[in-house]
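I can't quite decide. Please look over this sequence plus structure tokens:

:::
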Amino acid sequence: MVGTKETRLVVLRGNSASGKSSVAAGLRERFGRGLALVSQDNLRRIVLRERDRPNAANIGLIDLTARYALDAGFHVVIEGILYADHYGDMLAQLRADHRGPSHGYYLHVPFEETLARHATKPIADDVDEAQLREWYRPFDPLPTGGETVIGASSALTETVEHILHDTDLARLPAVDR
């Protein structure tokens, strides 16, 4: 078992440029200290410099990092593309092992919107439309379910507020660490 009955586990998944990182940053900004962000991009691309593939090392590192933070009393937001077929088993086991409430959200954005959002990102010159199309999955829910689908029409502030209230993070105090 991992975490406590008070800790919250939040998983944000979706395609590239669906808003996952922005939502995670918004949750942290609104909540304050005591909320750990576990970013797939940071652990996979920066720490390990690894390709996204089944059974890759980053899957275990994401799991280990989230478990450590939960056991230390942090609420945890895991965010990333987190393809269901690569990360689904790990996420299901983490949710099953977590003592507190666990919540999953899938940010569902059409490919055309992905392209428009991607054009505003710093990596827009490094990643072209063909690469985005290769990464894009029209809909990739976890086979175990348990995810709330949030569409492209939900504004960033609306999505952050929805998740804060749905998870009860809105009513929990920040931790002075």
User: Anything to note?
Assistant: The mean pLDDT is 93.
